[in-house]
UniProtKB/TrEMBL annotation:
This is CoA-binding protein. It comes from Halomonas flagellata. PANTHER family: SUCCINATE--COA LIGASE [ADP_GDP-FORMING] SUBUNIT ALPHA, MITOCHONDRIAL, SUCCINYL-COA LIGASE SUBUNIT ALPHA. It comes from the Bacteria. Pfam families: CoA_binding, Succ_CoA_lig. Residues 50-123 form the CoA-binding domain.
Amino acid sequence: MYLQGIADFPYYLGIRSLADVARREDRVCVLNIMGGESRTVTPVSHAYSGGNVVFGTSPGRAGQTLKTPVGDIPVFNNVREGLDAGHTFNVGVIYLPPPSVRDGVAELIRVNDALEKIVIITEKIAVHDAREIRAMGQANGVDIIGGNCLGVADSWNHVRIGGALGGDSPEESLRKGSVAIFSNSGGFTTTIAQYLATEGWGTTTLVSSGKDVYIHYNARDFSHALVNDDRSKAAVLYVEPGGYHEHGVDFGKPTVACVVGRWKSKLTRAVGHAGAMAGSGDRAEDKEGWLMEAFGVDGLYTPDNPVVSAKGAVVTNIADIPMALTAVMKLNGVSPDFASTGSLALKPWIANDQGLALPPELAMPPVTPREPYATQLAVLKRQVGAVIARQTMKDKSGASVMDPTTQVTSVHGFSVLDLALDPLEANFALPLVHEIAGENDRAMLDVAVAAEVNLVGDPILVAADAARDAGNAPNAIMAAAAAIVGPKRVERALACTSALIDLFAHSDLRDGRSEEFDTSAITMDAATRALFLASEAEADDPRPEAMLAAVKARGGKSVFLEYLTTLNGRLSRDAILAAISLTIAWGPLMRKRISRLTAETLPWYLRLYGVMVGATIPGSHHQPGSLCGIPRDERFGQWTMTDLCFLAMTGKKPTRDEALPLQILVGLLISNGPGSISAQGAKGAVAADGPQTPERVQINKAMVGFLTHTGYSHGGNGFEGMAFLLDQFKDKGLSDPTDPSHGIDLKAMATDFARAYKREKAEAKEIGTEVRALPGVHHPIFKGKPVNYDPRERFIAEFMAKRGDYNIFHAFYRELVQALYDVGASRYVFCVNVDAVIAALLLALLWKDYKSGELTERDLETAAFSVFLYGRMIGSAAEIDDHLNRGRNMDTRTPASACFHVV
């Protein structure tokens, strides 16, 4: 069979002019028309083209139709059925999966003698299939375009065949003009057309060639059709690495080529459009050279270096294409097709400088977008807080992440090492505002929590004491207390917070501390006002006045408290808690750092913080107006979270020197990432309640989940390091662990222990028993070097050293790891891990009370457990809030296929 193709071509080519690529009279059959991509794209193409799709195929769906704006398209099981039904076509479009494309091409060619063109949308077609497809097309006189393309379109003919060139509104992007586009990228084909319009250039024919390994309709074919198309005065090429399609091609008309992908020459495997990955001599840099030689230019075009010739220019940024084309066409005496439609200058629709003084080139004022985007943006601007997409959160977290190299966890982007150096109340706020609270907000938090710690007369204290008397560990005592702080306990506080958000959301208030803000326009009805005022049953509660006085004494500022004081009535404790919470949350809420849900639930967390700390103090110390003998006004007006936590552990207020180690301890313990047992307990409780209906999630129950997932191994094991140190120093006469002039030979102590430990290891090996692990020594991650370090331990040690602080227990640990190596008990110098630092800091903090008999070893163990719980209380709050905002119902379940029965 003789095929009448283009003369002088070494292979068959039927498309003589670009005007023939996508014609108005073309009739189309779509294979896999009911597939996911085709169902969306084909109706748009069909309508834009005036109804050019005659039928489609989808095995097993014969008799169905694909609805479009200009009529339904019938569906058949195969091509033969469609032809037998009287439909005729000359173009096939293929949306089939890669393994089926070859058979689809064969079917089209075998049953339809009138077939002229096939457009293959499918990507990643096997090379051997592509070769057979090429052979079939050549043998039967069929032009094939693709694969991995977005089809073809013609702005003059108002036709689109296969793919989504021009997007959902092709009439907006495909403006009639004089420039043809040939692009390896389907998406950028449309983008280039849109960019050209900003310089007044419209388009003729657009060909998305695709960029599978085998490109069937390539640059040489395009150049021939370009020369024969009287409509096209110029061309734009978008070129990627791989293949020699553009080498030695004379495009015959002015052309701007955009060559991208220099980075792909550094790859060792195919990625994305680098399916035909650059090999020897066909890198992006090589193609730039070919095209510069073809156009007679000696450099790349940029706005600052506009290198062009009458033949063309080479750019590396698609944004430079329009200006380059205008410059080239000016040399040819050709003007743009129409007036400019705009510019490619940045035109932000949204601007938020976060209060920073930006230089003029960055401080760009926002512009009003065109419709429908202007209306949509207006709706978004009225949205309060962040909106977070839900997803399955099993073993995931949007709050915390652990660096696998350093083993250091970060919470909302803040390393726990840095958090260890921040005030404790700043850390308690972080999980819920995603920022480090400033001085004003820390003071407000101190007041809010202090108002919740004294539990005198509350059933919570009865429950906590009963759990304590039953011999429970600190976590179970806290859990008994937290279980009672259920939804009804915080219902009004949350309602007050929600009401305040509604009142101020669109008032242009940006800072909750702005007491000068004019609230005269904020009005509330009688029912809302009643929500904030104390009831008769609360008449004997002295805390509202004490809280307001404490805020004033601390110099706290809150526009919400200022506003509530204008209501001419006695405020309830819930109303004040809500106002304090919203003061802390308002800035992050307005900056969309947190969601409205997070801001509304903040009072629940603050109340839980106070109750859980208060529950660790035995009931006998809770008295009307005082806690452990500390008057209410002093605690409310002066005490910090650090003071309260230290009080709960020791029964007294810490000195300045005692407060810092406690702050560091809690900071270090905040989180160990979402995989820790404690975090899993918290997240599982949220998942069980159903975060997709967040109003039903019980935050107190999630805190109980964290508490029940701690224990003597995870939480209480902090005492093991202290017990080890107590054993080493029991007969040493140590009076002050922080005095470097202690007179104890630590090296000798360490050496004696190391020798004994070496003998112990030998004996254990001889009789086949396990050797006891040394708490605080070694870490599976930080090993293998002659001398090993835990970066967390080094960080804290260096900080303490800069302050001139000394800790004998930490110093002993350092001597110990060296001695173990020196006597041959270890193969290398073990690291002193962060657990050792925690044990050393805590024991030094409590040493004097222990030696005086005020604290027993049992008390030390309780203190070690409690410090862990205080830290993880913060980390768990972060996980609870994150899962509440981001998670799906029951998403922490393990699939049955991953579960096993053990006999």
